[in-house]
Amino acid sequence: MSAQLLEFDPRRFRWLGIEARQYKSHPGEARGMGWRGISRCVLTGDEAVPAGYELRYFELEPAGYSSLEKHRHVHFVVVLRGHGRALVGAQVIDLRPFDALQVPTLTPHRWLNESREPFGFLCPVDRERDRPQPIDDGEWDALRANSVTARYVF
Amino acid sequence: MSAQLLEFDPRRFRWLGIEARQYKSHPGEARGMGWRGISRCVLTGDEAVPAGYELRYFELEPAGYSSLEKHRHVHFVVVLRGHGRALVGAQVIDLRPFDALQVPTLTPHRWLNESREPFGFLCPVDRERDRPQPIDDGEWDALRANSVTARYVF
Questions:
Q1: HEC string of B51-98?
Q2: I want to staple B110 with a disulfide (CB 3.0 to 4.6 A). Which of B52, B87, B99, B137 is the partner?
């Protein structure tokens, strides 16, 4: 077997041969599961790769946001591009290039881009993992009642 | 639990609170296993993180190089900084920022920095994995006999 190079094109900010897909295959219909303006590139897409992880690149357009969700698997991201914001539990965290953030298990979280430039990050994840789920009533109410987080709970 | 932010310091090109360690704890004594001028930062160092992968950042100083080795687990890297070179099997591949490279299972490989600036890359890897091993006699002889790869086999 030979090495597989994914050549990066700085002008497009994409890897040659890697197609950008939608963030999710369905619009989220459950409360908080809506999202806007996100693309997803899977860098380790070849299922023949005998590794337990996948590496994805997500990019949020200006005004883009992800689902407000939680899951058992841990999230870890490394910013590659732009400035973004993460709602994680009761925290709101600003992110700049190469900042890394770990989201604990079952913690409500949402990524947002409130800047005028694209915001993109790498996200390695276990290949076998649980599906994201909406946050529950108690979590929703607490985040809505918190002046720091309320505006990101919709 | 609260989110863990690893804030990046662009001046030092390091994450606050993450200590750079040596590439390996021992100098390589077996043929080809020598290395020079490499540091390693483990971004997912907390063993409490219930994920099957680790994410490391390796950085090679100018003139730095890694062991010439192989292992069953697949390597995948994403360049963050500088220009480097990878020997992978019979290929020599130049790498620039955000290029991504997959090294197949049991394929001899070595990373090199022949530039005047640091060369750094992210490398996610399965937490449970086999140890690197020296390449065998046949692989050594073939790489030495190949004019493309010979200079990197030492």
A1: CCEEEEEEEEEEEEECCCEECCCCEEEEEEECCEEEEECCEEEEECCC
A2: B87
Strand, coil or helix: B151: helix
pTM of the entire predicted model: 0.95
Token reading at A44:
């380790």
Give me B75's structure tokens: 């390597």
This complex has an ipTM of 0.93
Q: Give residue B74's identity as a one-letter amino acid code.
A: V
- The answer regarding whether domain B13-152 maps to CATH 2.60.120.10 reads yes
Q: What does the alpha-carbon distance between residue A85 and residue A132 come to, in Å, rounded to a whole number?
A: 19
Written as tens digits, the pLDDT of chain A (154 aa) is 688 999 999 999 999 999 998 888 777 788 999 999 999 999 986 665 678 899 999 999 999 999 999 999 999 999 999 999 999 999 999 999 999 999 999 999 999 999 999 999 999 999 899 999 999 999 999 999 999 999 999 9
Cβ neighbours of residue A136 closer than 8 Å, sequence gap 6 or more: none
Residues in chain A: 154
Give yes or no for a contact between B45 and B56, defined as CB atoms under 8 angstroms apart.
no
- Residues of chain A found within 8 Å of residue B86, distances taken between Cβ atoms: 3
CATH number attached to the domain at A17-152: 2.60.120.10
B57 within 8 A of B123, measured Cβ to Cβ = yes
Determine whether the interchain pair A76/B52 forms a contact, defined as Cβ–Cβ distance below 8 Å: no
Backbone angles phi, psi at B12, to 5 degrees: -90, -10
**Which residues in chain B have their CB less than 8 angstroms from residue A3's CB?**
86, 88-89, 91, 93, 101-104, 107, 109
Residue extents of the structural domains in chain A: 17-152
Residue B90 to residues A69, A96, B135, B142, Cα–Cα distance (Å): 45, 38, 13, 8
Min Cα distance B43 → chain A (Å) is: 8
